[in-house]
Amino acid sequence: MRVKTVDAVSMVDIFKTLNEFIPEVTLDFTEEGLKISGIDASKVVLINVFLPKSYFDEYDVNGEEKVGVNLEDLTDLLSGVTKNDSLAFSGEDSMLTVEIEGEYYRKFAIPRLQVESVELPQTDLEFPFRAKLITPTFTEIISGFEDLGADAVRFKSNDGKLTLTAYSDVVESTIELSTENGGLLEAEGSDAESVYGLEYLANTTRLKRASGSMEIRFGTQLPLKLRYEMPQGGYNDFYIAPRAE
Fold first, then answer.
1. CATH code at 152?
2. Digit-coded pLDDT (tens) for 131-176
3. N or C terminus: which one in the chain shows less Cβ crowding within 10 Å?
4. Boundaries of domain holding 136
5. Is the CB of residue 224 less than 8 Å from the CB of residue 243?
6. Are residues 39 and 104 in the same domain?
């Protein structure tokens, strides 16, 4: 098994984002592409990642290869990656080989782990509202909410508009997005309203460099689905459970 991408920074951002939620994952290299899934310890956030083989510049996988990794160890190894670097993974026996090539060549080998499998809930939900927007719009809004010291965000759809209200015991801030004001690229569905923890939303925004556009789906007392869209049809999906009020 050997896979390689010239966009090492985006791959590292994916691993760093996953590490905000789960300490270990199984990299499931299939003939269709790389699949990663997991759920955080609090069982609030479910994650599904898919990067098709066309996302990679080199993808040599026969059948299926599962590689367990500790994300903190992996991201520490990749901390020096720059935008001019390529990143390759290859596996033999009990070790995963990581190669970084740019201004100079670096090679590491880390143990392949046996990651305990966790039964994941079904994600085939019907969401009443869907919106699409550019990723920087969402990540800048969430960053601003963090700066205010908010701890929760109310998502509300009404007449095709999406209103985000961040609040805590001492602060409240509201932003309205629509196709008319340019905040949304697309919007469709019925009226809905739910509240989600700001910390979980913020932990997904490390993907702002890797993703150009994203999709938001939610419904009243339903999980929030954030899909960070990647090149070649890839995606990073986060299902965030609603907060009880």
1. 3.70.10.10
2. 999 999 999 999 999 999 999 999 999 999 999 999 999 999 999 9
3. C
4. 129-236
5. no
6. yes
